[in-house]
Design goal:
166 residues, alpha+beta, Rieske Iron-sulfur Protein, 2 domains, four-stranded antiparallel β-sheet, 1 helix, 12 strands, metal ion binding
């Protein structure tokens, strides 16, 4: 090969290697994203339960607009146990019920590195990525690397459903 051909080949290989490194690094940088909470409201995040109980599995599918136009239906109140909660993944909302009839809403995005919240276990909201735990009462960090509380999301009870309200 001539010097020009060798130099051109090296340039092509070097550019291909750089493109591969940049392409492989993009998902890593995205996973280390910031604390984008623009989709959450800064309200109190409290709701009140109706008298009586809802039958299991009742109500519309998660994330559907409510019939009354007062927000988005997250799911039935029966999905949220007393002393626990449920992650509504599509809506990126965690709803907890610290005491009977008291519903609280929080962002389902961890304040540590922006990963999705995984579950509510043993009375705590849990992010599985770095093991941050948050209080079901006020969203404050209990353990793990997260230092900032989960932002509150306004929720209310409408009939037998939990609604994310504006």
């Amino acid at each position: 090969m001539t010097d020009d051909t060798t130099r051109d080949r090296r340039t092509v290989l070097r550019c291909a290697a750089m493109a591969a490194l940049v392409g492989a690094g993009a998902p890593i940088l995205a996973a280390c994203g910031g604390n984008d909470t623009s989709g959450t409201s800064g309200g109190t995040g409290t709701g009140t339960a109706p008298t009586g109980s809802a039958p299991s599995g009742s109500g519309p599918a998660s994330g559907t607009p409510s019939a009354g136009g007062g927000g988005t239906v997250l799911g039935p109140v029966s999905d949220v146990p007393v002393g626990g909660g449920k992650v509504f993944t599509d809506a990126k909302v965690v709803v907890t019920q610290p005491t009977a009839g008291q519903y609280k809403g929080f962002s389902a995005i961890c304040t540590h590195q922006g990963n999705p919240i995984g579950s509510v276990e043993n009375g705590q909201i849990v992010c599985p990525f770095h093991n941050s735990h948050f209080s079901i009462t006020d969203g404050s960090p209990v353990s793990g690397p997260a230092a900032t509380p989960l932002p509150a999301v306004n929720v209310k009870v409408q009939g037998t459903n939990i609604i994310e309200s504006a």
